[in-house]
Every structure is written in C-alpha cells, then in structure tokens.
Write a structure and sequence with these properties.
This protein is mainly beta. The chain has one helix and 17 strands. It starts with 7 loop residues before the first strand and ends with a strand.
C-alpha cells in the first residue's frame, strides 16, 4: 500500500496464533498500540482484536478496533469503535464515534469488487440538541472506475420549526453526462458551522 511521505511513530504489543490443518486454519490476533502519530494526526491508544477461519471454500473474519483520543489541528475525537465481520465478498461494518458534543453510529454492508457496493442500513448523528437519522434504509452507494451512484439517501433532522433534511440520488460520472440530484431543505447554517468546527459568524436556513 502507498503511504504519503510522513513519519509514523508507535510502540506496543502484537500477539497472533495459528492452529488447525492446512485445509482448515484458525487465526487469532491482538494488537495494542500506545500513543502514536502519523503526520499531524495523533492518538492515545489503539486496540485490535481479530480472528478468522480459513478453509478450502471460504475465508471468514471478525475484527474489532478501538481507538482513543484522536487529535489533529482541526478535530478531536474521544473514541472510535469499529467492527467488521464477513468474508472477502461481503462485509458487515458497524462503527461508533464519540466526541465532545458529537456522537455518530453507522451500520453498513460492503460488497467489494469491480463495482464496490455499500448498503447503509443505519446512520445516526447526534450533535448538541439535534439528531440526524437515515430515512427508509438502506441507502445504496455504488463506486466503479467511472461512476459514483447514490440511491435512496435521505438524512432527516428532528428540527421542530421546519423540516430539515438532505437527500441525494443519481450518478456522478467521470466521463458521461451527469445525472445527480441533491436536495437540501431547512439546513441550519449555524449548526453546520459548529459541526464542522468553523468559527465563521453565519446563520440562517438553506433550502
């Protein structure tokens, strides 16, 4: 894999075991990394738990990652927990992010291949007094060498004064004609700037 020119500093422990027969192997691994940095990104700790089954007909895996105190010049995340389970053809991914005033949970099915397909089964964002929730899941995202496709994506906020949502569907193509629709209704600019940690004095609604 390609890594941009940067310095990576870390220390910790790694343990792994492999047992079974050549046609049916079980793999278990754990890793505990101490405070580390990659460029401008720093984190206090990272823990990985993983196990897998390798057979003649399939490869199954189950992995979980927990990271604490992820920091950069523009963000600070208290914790990030992610779990992936499946096989090379289908992966279920769940993740939870917690920051000072922000919490987010996501659940998705990922289907690798020449066409990468992602089914968003759940996405919830809690920020201060607002909650954004994915409506009528799954939302589907497809990515191949030429196109990005989004279907049935709509995030709705529990904003009492006016319906506040973002929806998208269609295709963004690198070569062909674009057929993409983005709809924004009642978006609170002040809340958006706070979510993005921008200090610009902006207020009002976007429709």
């Amino acid at each position: 894999a390609y890594l941009p020119d940067s310095n990576l500093h870390t220390s910790g422990t790694f343990n792994a075991s492999l047992r079974g027969r050549p046609n049916a192997l079980s793999v278990e691994a754990t890793a505990q990394l101490d405070s580390r940095s990659y460029g401008e990104i720093k984190l206090a700790s990272l823990t990985l738990f993983a196990n897998g089954q390798i057979t003649v007909t399939d490869t199954l895996f189950d992995a979980r990652v927990v990271a604490h105190q992820i920091q950069s010049a523009d963000m600070q995340i208290d914790s990030l927990t992610a779990a992936a389970k499946g096989n090379p053809d289908s992966v279920n991914l769940t993740a939870n992010l917690a920051a000072r005033e922000l919490n987010s949970q996501i659940d998705a099915e990922i289907f690798p291949g020449e066409l990468l397909k992602i089914d968003l089964n759940n996405w919830k964002i809690d920020f201060r007094n607002q909650t954004w929730t994915l409506q009528q899941p799954p939302a589907t995202i497809g990515i191949d060498a030429q196109n990005y496709a989004i279907e049935n994506f709509k995030m709705l906020a529990n904003y009492t004064e006016q319906d506040q949502f973002i929806s998208a569907h269609g295709v963004i193509s690198r070569q062909n004609e674009q057929n993409f629709n983005l709809e924004i209704n009642g978006l609170n600019l002040e809340s958006l700037m706070q979510l993005l940690e921008q200090e610009q004095a902006v207020s009002g609604l976007v429709n």
